[in-house]
Amino acid sequence: MELASSDPVRPVGRGRKAQAAVRAATLAELLDRGYADLTVEGVAQRAGVHKTTVYRRWKNRESLVVDALAEHFATDIPIPDTGSVEGDLRALAQALVQSMTSPVGRAVQTAMLSDAGRLPEIAEARRGVLADRFRRAEPVVARAVERGELPADTDPAALFRTLAAPVYFRLLISADQVAEGAENAEDAEGVADETVRVALAAARAGALARARPVTDGEQA
Amino acid sequence: MELASSDPVRPVGRGRKAQAAVRAATLAELLDRGYADLTVEGVAQRAGVHKTTVYRRWKNRESLVVDALAEHFATDIPIPDTGSVEGDLRALAQALVQSMTSPVGRAVQTAMLSDAGRLPEIAEARRGVLADRFRRAEPVVARAVERGELPADTDPAALFRTLAAPVYFRLLISADQVAEGAENAEDAEGVADETVRVALAAARAGALARARPVTDGEQA
Asked: Which residue in B35, B197, B205 is closest to A115 by CB distance?
């Protein structure tokens, strides 16, 4: 986000515009420098506001980072309804890849896994985001079962985990080139394709069935 | 690692013992504080050596962290040969879970994903570790194909990725309780079980076949 061009004298002021600029600058600083080197001064400078403007609303860099991340996840991945389980899973996988390969998405993911993830508020935010994404698999599975595409006892959480895990693994852990940006669009396509193929094969074979209540308690 | 009790006057000295103590202290500091708050002073104090002893061998905290991580991965996961593909995959998955849930393993993984992962040497070390682990799947797949347990065109890299991704996802990203330690041993078992089931079903269904050379070039 850039400075508000409509207000050239006092760049962004103290109101909502300034807050948006500070949040955007926080994400940009996370992307460029990482959490360890992020400072309130650097964020203020990037946002074009005075340091005291930042401190008026956020008490330290931790609260700044938590707030910027929470705001980012307010807009999330939609629940697809393409008419087939394969189409729905592909849409979910592609949305996940897209969200994780965009510059802001990468900054946010990296920050959540970085030392910032040690903050209880960030760990909590991460759990919230994932729980929300897991829930998005529920209607997809329910419709697939109705259409007779998947076994009735398919566990939506296990299916979403199977779908999402390789995306996270390839983009964050093994850091395939797909993470490098748009010039690798066909690789992003490949990541989504493989994970859809695997998740579907596993679900159809009954490998993603709900845990039976025979054992002591439920599996998460 | 503790101070060498055999040398109570000058705790660990300047030699190999001191170096081992410094590396162990680096991993311990990574575990307790994370990379952002790790200092050469803190490591020296924990190792029971003088700061100058550390600086004699390592020029800064970055080289210290890179060296401690590289040393840790010298001992790695063995290649199983249990007589069945299911047994081999279970052994691989269990070794991975074990390595990632041990305190040192968690410190190392967390460090690699933290801001320390921005260092080119650490990114390189991470790629090396993963490449090595991917190679461990090759003999497992070759034997399974020979025994007629898996399709001949099964891609060992895709199989290992399918096996490892949920382990990384559950232990690092969604941070299931299994990461909290030994009291959750049955959950660790559950993580390994699910990923073996999924990987086997996908491989048997042909969802992990090598990319055919019809398209432009090979998939990684």
From this structure: B35
